[in-house]
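[Meeting: bench + compute handoff]

Bench side (C.D.) handed over the final construct sequence. Compute side (W.E.) agreed to return the predicted structure before the next meeting so the bench team could plan truncations. Sequence as handed over:
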Amino acid sequence: MTTSVQTWHLFAHGRVQGVGYRAACAERAGALGVCGWVRNRVDGTVEVTASGTQAQLEALRQWMETGPPAARVSHVDMTVAAPESFDRFDCRSTA
């Protein structure tokens, strides 16, 4: 396992909007020490760009597969993205 910083781009599918997913995701990311952002998409998904160690990002992805109690996540798509530098984790407007 590497401790170098990576950036991942993730999309949560299912019932992930209108259930507090973004706020809970931002809280979880902050607790894990992950930086980046989360936003709703007009297609009904939730998009996340996150930077951290592989272990931190794996933990966030695992949380995203379940989400907050009212969410019903069908699956999470993940790709490794070009490295980005963030100083915190933000909730962004819908895109």
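W.E. noted at the follow-up: The chain has a mean pLDDT of 95. C.D. will use this when planning the next construct.
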